[in-house]
Amino acid sequence: MMKNSYVKVLDGGFSGQLSRHVGTKIDGDPLWTARFLKTDVNAIYATHLDFLRSGADIIETNTYQASVPGMMRYLNISERESLNLLNTAVSLAKRAVEEYAREERISSDQRPLVAGSCGPYGAYLHNASEYTGSYGKNMSQQELIDWHRPRVKTLLDAGVDLLALETIPCVKEAEALLELLKEYPHARAWLSFSCRDDKFISDGSVFQEVATRCYHTLPSQIIAIGVNCIDPKYVTPLLKGINVNMSSEQDFIPLVVYPNRGGSYSATGEWTAVPDDHSLNLPISEWLDLGIRYIGGCCKIFAEDIQTIRSEVIRCQANIVL
Fold it and tell me: 163 has which bridge partners?
């Protein structure tokens, strides 16, 4: 691990933790957890607090699947009402941070941050194409930019601290998001890919080549590059080598990772899940040495898992010889 580095702990899988506060089905809904922005804001607020109290330095808004066209279609509401729900999502996250800061008597400069979650176009399609990126072949870069813009603009205008551009399965969408980000030069974001194995992102492109190129395209705005919603066993081979041949600290690429509990998408088009109590053994010390500066969890990573991750991060950082 590089000297004077500081690792930020992210939150975990919002769906799994939210399910502990609601009694209705979440998985399978075309809006996923975003539906609760209209039906149960208290559960969303409680979920944010769960992760904050477990040690998250950054929490994400409940907007991964909250696209404007998706909410208009599946909630039968107007464009303005959809944009208002995005604002609600930011308000809930910020209010949870304020409550946590009061509880812990945290000063304003030490408060956890709020990241605006922006899932891929494939999540809106609700056909698992966020794990294939197949739509990238049929859409132009401009179409993807225009689709993402309303949510990105609304989240930034609502005051998120940064953006989480996540589970991106194809190169074209990643490049579209980088172009869109240039429209908001003061915005900062991490860019996280959906990968199908230990080498390739979901559309078959080589992860390390794509990740390195994307970071160097916009280093003033991209705070980290990485992977999410992936089996932990793939993380090390995907990231190993990115920060090996650095001639100076300026060559260092900060990495972000938030794996799931071990689930994966098969070549036959079916999600292979693992039990909620499946053993979670993350080689955090090894990952930090690769250059990971943001670490958390995705599907089926609960608040208690984030607490464990934070404890391990603290232990690893205490062992750094400066």
Answer: 116, 189
User: What single DSSP character describes residue 204?
Assistant: S
Task: Report the distance separating Cα 229 and Cα 246, nearest Å.
Answer: 28
> 54 with 96: CB under 8 angstroms?
no
Backbone angles phi, psi at 164, to 5 degrees: -110, 100
User: What is the structure's pLDDT at 25?
Assistant: 74
pLDDT at 40: 96
CB-CB contact of 215 with 222 (8 Å): yes
Contact 278, 286 (CB under 8 A): no
Predicted pLDDT of residue 319: 76
CA dist., res. 93 & res. 80, Å (int): 20
Please give the biggest Cα pair distance in the chain: 57
The answer to whether the CB of 177 falls within 8 A of the CB of 124 is no
Tens digit of pLDDT for each residue in 294-307? 999 999 899 999 99
Burial group, residue 315, by CB count within 10 angstroms (0-12, 13-18, 19+): exposed
Q: 2 CB contacts (<8 Å, ≥6 apart)?
A: 249, 252, 291
In the chain, which residues have pLDDT < 70? 1-5, 247, 263-278, 320-322
Alpha helices in the chain (DSSP H): 14-18, 36-39, 41-53, 68-75, 79-104, 121-125, 141-157, 171-181, 207-217, 235-239, 284-290, 303-318
CA distances from 276 to 13, 203, 235, 260 (A): 11, 28, 20, 11
Please give the distance of CA 14 from its chain centroid, rounded to a whole number: 10
Q: Is 168 exposed, middle or buried (0-12, 13-18, 19+ CB in 10 A)?
A: buried
Count of Cβ atoms closer than 10 Å to residue 16 Cβ: 23
| Short-list 59, 10, 7, CA closest to 288 | 7
